[in-house]
Design brief:
It comes from Psychromicrobium silvestre. The chain has four helices and seven strands; from the N terminus they run ααβββββαβαβ. The protein is an alpha+beta fold and 224 residues long. Among the domains are: 63 residues, Type Iii Antifreeze Protein Isoform Hplc 12; 89 residues.
């Protein structure tokens, strides 16, 4: 028993001598640890994050945004795109120009308006076109390239060969497809039927404007 006590006593004496020899190093380590804790406590939590709005659920094209469909998230600034919204009040009541996935961030390019032409070549114009067969809309999505063909009815009531009005122009907007979802707030359901918004160069947009009043407008899907 005495030998065990002597062994423990010897261990403590050696440990004490070791700490005395390394006391400056130990003090420096403790000081660094204290400084790190102090910096962490004093650094604001949000210093290295930015706020942005994201969708709380999958939202279809044409959805009129409400507060329940949006939430504020915190992300590294580099992960937040330019022109991203960070306050629900900025967008409530506005409509989506394209579908939005749950968790996807909301930017000005997501909404109907002039932002639809962001990134388009200079001189590009947004032109509404009404297709003769609204069932065509089921195959369209924003960004899809289409060629617009106009067929004119002759005196015998027959449609001649179609003329191409615009080639490989992108779709900017289509009415919401889901039952009960919103279309443009200024358009009734029947008014929005078959309506598609296209981005076209100025020389082609003149031919597209009012094309449905001159004949039957059809769209041909173009591969990317």
């Amino acid at each position: 028993m005495d030998s065990i006590k002597l062994s423990i006593s010897a261990i403590f004496r050696r440990l004490f001598r070791l700490l005395r020899r390394r006391r400056r190093l130990l003090a420096a380590l403790l000081l660094c640890a204290a400084a790190a804790v102090a910096v962490e406590q004093l650094t604001p939590v949000d210093q290295f994050t930015a706020s942005a709005l994201s969708a709380t659920a999958d939202l279809p094209t044409g959805t009129v945004l409400s507060a329940a469909q949006l939430k504020i998230v915190r992300l590294p600034p580099a992960a937040v795109p330019d022109a991203a919204f960070n306050d629900p009040e900025q967008v409530i009541g506005q409509q989506l120009a394209a579908p939005l996935r749950r968790g996807q961030l909301l930017t000005d390019a997501s909404l109907l308006g002039h932002s639809l032409l962001i990134g388009a070549p200079p001189g590009t114009e947004a032109v509404p076109v009404r297709v003769a067969d609204p069932a065509t809309m089921a195959w369209l999505l924003p960004g899809q390239l289409v060629t617009v063909v106009l067929s004119i009815e002759d005196q015998a009531g027959r449609y001649g060969p179609g003329a191409v009005l615009a080639s490989a122009v992108p779709v900017l907007w289509i009415p919401a497809k889901e039952p009960g979802s919103s279309s443009w707030s200024t358009l009734g359901e029947s008014s929005a039927s078959g309506l598609v918004l296209l981005a076209a160069p100025k020389n082609q947009s003149k031919s597209l404007a009012g094309a449905s009043s001159r004949g039957k407008v059809s769209l041909v899907l173009v591969g990317g």
